[in-house]
Design brief:
The chain is α/β, with parallel strands linked by helices. It is about 25% helix and about 30% strand. Helix 4 links the parallel strand 5 and strand 6. Helix 5 runs antiparallel to helix 7.
Length: about 210
């Protein structure tokens, strides 16, 4: 697997293109990502969303128009963010063609022989996921380099974020992490700081 990465928009949201012999898988096409994705993808196999915030899904509609046969996949609890402009920012809605239904666990699908696993870690959004492909994790806005996603937005939940971090702390495999913003990291590197984040969330809830 070859990984291409490009940050887009005011929030410098990372869009990823994963190249396989069979074709390409796109993760989180944000504001302004369409031209780059179309240039890089001769045979797009799927567009995956880690979660439903506008800066990660903005180009969904234009890419679905360019590649009408390409499936669009996200967790079912964030589907409403794709299906409507719920933040009233001018987003063109684009409903997912397939949704992931697992609750605080993992669900795997296979596309053209490529195994894709959605690990549901709610808190930042109801359907926030880390997506595992070829032993790499695409973490969206759940885990960053030395940081975690915010849990004070509309539709966020600090209690869910705390529980998700507890589960993240117990992951047994040290996989590389490619976040929705900023530089890459790894499971082991971020597990060192998980207790600190959990404590801070507990203090803020109280």
């Amino acid at each position: 697997m070859e990984i291409l990465k490009h940050p887009f928009g005011d929030y410098q949201t990372n869009c990823y293109i994963l190249k396989f012999p069979q074709g390409q898988i796109i993760v989180d096409a944000g504001i302004g990502a369409s031209k780059w994705v179309i240039e890089q993808c001769e045979n797009p196999l799927a567009l995956l969303n880690t979660h439903g915030h506008f800066d990660h899904i903005w180009s969904n509609a234009s890419l679905r128009e360019a590649f009408p046969q390409m499936p669009l996949i996200c967790h079912q609890k964030d589907a409403f963010m794709l299906e409507s402009d719920c933040f009233e920012l001018g987003l063109i809605p684009s409903a997912p063609t397939h949704t992931i239904g697992v609750e605080k666990g993992s669900e795997s699908i296979k596309i053209e022989g490529i195994d894709i696993t959605f690990h549901h870690f709610p808190g930042h959004t109801p359907g926030c996921c880390m997506i595992e492909i070829d032993s790499h994790l695409f973490s969206g806005d759940f885990i960053f380099y030395r940081c975690i996603g915010r849990y004070d937005f509309a539709y966020s939940n600090p209690g869910d974020m705390k529980e998700s971090l507890q589960r993240f702390k117990n992951l047994q495999r040290d996989l590389p992490i490619h976040p929705g913003h900023g530089e890459d990291t790894s499971v082991a590197n971020e597990q060192k700081h998980t207790d600190m984040w959990i404590t801070r969330i507990k203090e803020e809830i109280c």
